[in-house]
What does this fold into?
Amino acid sequence: MKIKQKIFLPVFLIALFGIAYVNAAPKLKMDLRPDGLYLDNLNVAVMKKIFQDYGYVNVINKEKTIPPLMLEHLPADFDKIKSKDERNQLFIMVLAPLTLKINEELALERQDLILIKEVFDKGKELDSKQKEKVENLAKKYDVFTRMKGRDRFDILLNALAEKIDQIPPALLIATAAAESNWGTAVEVKKGNSLYKLKDWYTDKGIKPAGEDDDSYRIRVYPNLYESIRDYALKLNSDINFQHFRISRRQLRAHNQVLKGRTTVYNMVTGSPLENYAGLLTYILTFYDLINIDESHLGNIKVLEKK
It folds into this structure.
């Protein structure tokens, strides 16, 4: 059955899941887009039922595919899950398709950059659109130079080639788990803030609880995807993660697959949490997150046939 865009109809839900299902989530929103089925306003029971209906029972499978089921927010009762193991596994399942989508976005952005760089490296002049594209990327990824002319674009393109690249999904998930206590932190419920990134000297955002320091706020996001995207941008642009980017470049140079376990030791300065790299390594290993690094998003047509 093919799901139409922005499905809010109770009749549809009754036909698909039954009356009890509708009563459990009267405001469930389902929006089929070209890149996945987006879900919002659902509780844990409904989320588990939808996952089950689409055969999404684990992130580990022979096909190494993850269904493109994109949750806008964690369920309101997510922190009420009694089983720690079940909660953590569901957290991984929620973030897996989102982190894979982030990497698809980064891959396309890198591809555009490399095409421009190839033109430049052949000694050709960039056209106005290509120059504008490079300047916009430089602004986004915090690349700066006072040089002018061809020297300017030589510097910008080389710096951007190191900064714009994919990030192991396992690493994005492990850091989110560590920073948000597996999605149960109040900052996640209030503002989808999986990584608790800070904005300084502003009153916009979530005021940190139990702290005397009033100089910063925790960023808020419209959905989980934007939170992950913002953190990915930080990894790819912030000076504190330069070692991570250098390690990634070296792996690329040796044609090695980017994996969270091989990059995690460059995250020592990534958080005020104690033994951060060790904590991330434990999460990556215990939950076999390496499998997500080797996975890809499934075809949306599979969902349309349900």
